[in-house]
Amino acid sequence: MDKKEIELDIKVPNQTRYLSLIGRIGEDIAKELDKYAGDRETLAYHINLVLTEAMVNAIKYANTEDPDKLVHILINISDDELVIKVFDKGQGFDINSIPPPNFEKLEDRGRGIFLIRSLMDSVCYRKVRNGNMLEMSKKLH
Amino acid sequence: MNLKTEKKNDIIVINVKEERLDAHNSGELKNEMQKLFEEGNKNILVDLKDVRFIDSSGLGALVSGFKNAISHQGNLKLSSLQPQVKSMFELTRLHRVFEISASTSEALDNY
C-alpha cells in the first residue's frame, strides 16, 4: 500500500515549558512530508506556531494554568492533509465570538486565534466528552 | 530567559539570546523592558538575531514594551529579525508599528 498515515498521540503536563518540545515535534513532522511541494521551512514554522498557540490556549484559558492537568494533542498526517486536535478539560469558549485583532489598536493580546485561522484551512472548537477540542486542519497540496 | 543587556551611548541594547520567544519566556522580556523604562532609560533596542521562533505572546510582549516606551516618552526599536520571525510581524501588521533595522549596527547608526 502506497498511502502513508502517521498518528501521534501526545500528552504533556499543562505547563508552558513543554511548548518547545511540542513545537519541535511539529517542525519534524513537516520534514517527513515527502510529497509536500511548498516551502518546507515555512510549513515547519507554521505547524510549530499553531501547535504552540493551541497549547497555550489550552494551558492558560481552558485548564486555567493548573500544572497537574494534562494537555492532550492528537496529530494525524496523511499524504494530503494534516489534522491537529488539542483537547482540554476546561469550561470552553465560543471561538466564533473572538473578534479578529484590531490592527489600528495596539493590544498586548488577542493574536493567537487569528494566527491559527490565518495559517490553517479550517479551525473549529467544540464540546466533546470530558471537555473540549480545538481541531485544525491543513491541506498539504 | 537569557537576555544580554548592554549600553551603547544612550541606547540600551537587549540581546535576546533564545531560540524561541514564546508564552513560556516572553513575560521576562516584558518585565525587563518595563524596568528599564521605569529606571529612566529612554531608548531601547531589542535585537532578535538569535530568535528563530516567535508566537503571539512574544509579539504581545514587544507591543507591551512599545506602549511602555510611549508612556515614558521613549523609544523601542527592533533589529536583526530572521525571515520567518519577520513574516509574523507582517501577518499581524506589526511591521507598520515598529521601526525594524536589518542589523544592530544599522539600528544604532540611525537611532
Broad structural category of chain A? alpha+beta
- Largest interface, chains and sizes: A-B, 27 and 23 residues
Query: Which second-level CATH architecture of chain B applies?
Result: 2-Layer Sandwich
CATH topology of chain B: Transcription Regulator spoIIAA
| Secondary structure tally: strands of chain B | 7
**Mind describing the biggest β-sheet of chain A?**
5 strands, antiparallel
Please state the overall shape of chain B, judged from the principal axes of the Cα atoms: globular
The CATH superfamily of chain B is: STAS domain
**Could you give the order of strands across the largest sheet of chain B?**
1-2-4-6-7
Number of strands of chain A: 5
Might you state the CATH topology name of chain A?
Heat Shock Protein 90
Could you say how many structural domains of chain B there are in total?
A: 1
Order of SSEs of chain B: EEEHEEHEHEH
Question: How many distinct helices of chain A?
Answer: 3
Quaternary state of the chains:
heterodimer
- In spatial order, strands of the major sheet of chain A run 1-2-3-5-4
Poorly predicted regions of chain B: none
Instruction: Tell me the Rg of chain A in angstroms.
Output: 15 Å
Q: Average pLDDT of chain A, to the nearest integer?
A: 90
Distance between the first and last residues' Cα of chain B: 26 Å
Helical content of chain A stands at: 25-40%
Descriptive terms for the model:
A: 141 residues; alpha+beta; Heat Shock Protein 90; five-stranded antiparallel sheet; 5 strands; 32% helix; B: 111 residues; alpha/beta; Transcription Regulator spoIIAA; five-stranded mixed sheet; two-stranded parallel ribbon; 4 helices; 41% helix; globular
